[in-house]
């Protein structure tokens, strides 16, 4: 088994499923990375070595991605938060620094609100913000689900659809890392899991918005990508950045950081910035 992304391991969950994780480095506090929608540990390939220079860092495959078992349960926000909690229990630390990209932001915020004593700090990297209306647009949801279904159908026929933005991101990785990431991200099981996560997204966000969940009084850094790469981003980028700023300002130890050379994919476009902000919380 390749360990190009780190030393591999598995956490066995109460229902018997196994979550695959990789780790690099030594020391405390331990940093755990939560990926965005449809992404696995591979999205952290450029960030992990930088964080590992100072402390231990762990990334994992959510259920159905990479080398983790699939989940027969609906892949809603609450289920993903529950799985993260089981992974943290398996790792055995008293508290963690959690960093989440995109959908990973609401996942780690939800965990921190429910388990404040186990979180020493949060880094939210161009995170999704459940208060914004565009996550609930029916037209966007219908279009996205249709595209995902077509992509899955083509993959079953052996045709790999690699969007231009994904090709650009993969080009930033070393070759061995790139090949492993491409093979996983274009596989039928991963594409199906991506669709399953997206199908439950708006319902989970609506429940999170209604919950009024409060973050613990720990350092919270919110990183916003500032560039736009497509028409949809141009429509929502300013609104998203404003929501990031509002969240940071609402935290007693909040900071808002602008990733000037990045769009949404900050962990690949500016891995040094992401690692630097994580390590600021590590002390």
TrEMBL record:
<dbReference type="InterPro" id="IPR000639">
    <property type="entry name" value="Epox_hydrolase-like"/>
</dbReference>
<dbReference type="GO" id="GO:0016787">
    <property type="term" value="F:hydrolase activity"/>
</dbReference>
<dbReference type="Pfam" id="PF00561">
    <property type="entry name" value="Abhydrolase_1"/>
</dbReference>
<feature type="domain" description="AB hydrolase-1">
    <location>
        <begin position="29"/>
        <end position="131"/>
    </location>
</feature>
<dbReference type="InterPro" id="IPR029058">
    <property type="entry name" value="AB_hydrolase_fold"/>
</dbReference>
<keyword id="KW-0378">Hydrolase</keyword>
<protein>
    <submittedName>
        <fullName>Alpha/beta fold hydrolase</fullName>
    </submittedName>
</protein>
<dbReference type="InterPro" id="IPR050266">
    <property type="entry name" value="AB_hydrolase_sf"/>
</dbReference>
<dbReference type="InterPro" id="IPR000073">
    <property type="entry name" value="AB_hydrolase_1"/>
</dbReference>
